[in-house]
Amino acid sequence: MTATNSLLLMPYPQSLSPSPGHFRFPSDGSIVLSCTEDNSAMPAARKLQNVISKVLHLTLPLSIGLRPTVLAVCSFSQDSDLPLHAHKITVAENGISITYSTPEAAFHAVATLKQMIEQTGRTLPCLTIQDHPDFGARGLMIDISRNKIPKLETLYRIIELMADLKMNQLQLYVEGSPFAYESFPDVWKLETPISGEEILLLDAFCRERYIELVPNQNSFGHMEAWLSRPEFNHLAEVPEGFMLPEGMYAPDFYPEGLFMRPGTFDTEDPRVLELLENMYDDLLPYFSSKQFNVGCDETYELGLGKSKLQAGELGKGQLYLSFLQKIHTLVTQRGKTMQFWGDIIIQYPELIPQLPKNIIAMEWGYSAEHPFESDTKKFQEAEIPFYVCPGTSSWNSLTGRTDNMMANLLSAATHGKNNGAIGYLVTDWGDFGHWQHLPISYAGFVYGAALAWNTAGNEQADVPGYLNRFVFLDPTETIGNLLLDLGNYYKLESGISRPNDTEMSMLLRSKLDNVLMVEQLTDVQLEQLAIYIQEISERLEKASLYCEDGELVLSEIRNGIHFVEHAIKLGKIKRQLVITPGKADKEVLHEQIQDLDVLLHNYRLLWLERNRMGGLEQSASRLVALRQEYQALLEA
Hints:
Structural class: alpha/beta
């Protein structure tokens, strides 16, 4: 029998009090909904019924109403005196009772019971759990715009994990054409976007699990895919593109500067609002949510082109606020509450009080040191509702940045809770090709969900244990800690701060003749990295995953390791090029070309297991270019 103190619960509840004794599920009996006039807990009851059937191989019928002739194995009863979203689970020797404030709370109570049953089997320890979330909205945002558009079954798998972790909001980040805008078929006809009908399926699947599918479409900056097209280019602030100002990129990565395609709207052209209206009217009808994230982050060229004169007279902040208010009007006209990324307005704190009071600011930042404390106070003081939005640190990392991820997630939760955030959104981006495989992000999903539910009680959450037991079903208990360790390879790099990046990822994305970065990386560091990754690769062979996609997960992790290994070898080649410019060992180059061919072959195959075809070749294009550079150097 499993003792209460050995139960692994994720998220860990606000209060758990053990009691003497145990309860054993009988072979007969019923799951009872106490009130004959209110069946709102029926989804929770059916979920519990399915869990008992699947795990315990018992068939327990549902019964509505209390009767002396019916043995109540588990009873559900609503208690309006409980706080919003709160529930109470009592396991006694004669049965289980769940009291709840809302149907969603009952569903979350069953998520806890599910974890208990999967660990204890038919015999549960007696206990009382009183629980409620710290954040009303506990969400996950998946980037479906940077090349990788998941298949429906991949999204369903993520949603099931979210439900197990008591998350209640999902956003799919849209810029460009990952959604099939019916008014603009030419924009996406060569892609494999998510259709409106598929959104309807996802929306229903989410609602069944008390998850709100919130539409998310960037509407101001990050419009490169649209503004680079001839039919929309005239709507850009700087139609010809621009050079990103110094200080906004790594000079050793972009020694010639960084050219940016046009990505920000001309705020004064009325045709911009007409385009947004058409896009919104194509997108929003497929979502039942009353919220809408319109993005509006990183408007780099605002005030640098057509609006330069106005920016000089009014200030960039006022230009930004004015256009944001116009977007807000479009959103409210469509019956939605507007969410927007807060990174621009936070630069102009004097303007924050001028924001509409029915708007939600999304305070994002992805470093361990991001100033969540001071930034959130600015929104709090202006009485603007806000979320905190940390990230998984998976993007631009190949295999994650574990320590940064955990510190970033914890900081957001701590300061968000202290300063009154109404929501917590874990973001998972896919910049520069979306090279990281899905399992790399799971640790961030799990830890973020735990902190969003109960920040103080989950600071030391057993993320590896949860991954081993509930996600990957690894009886060897290898994979959880291995993934966290794999995500810490970046700590063996040069030690230079690389915001939202790792040097191994940067090496693969930089031109072969750019050797500036490796001037900071020593031969000793590269060798230490090689040894570290080799040890992890050997540990991986001990893992035994019994989850449905276990072999796929192992292959994805091996491919991620291969990415890092290839980058290390590339670093060594570049170190040689520092000494002998334009010359490298031909045998080493030949081996590197063969290695990259294998890496790319496996990457393409793995991509198609979880994702749609569209975007794959664009994702692989930098690696293809690297191969060409290897070949040119070999033939030189």
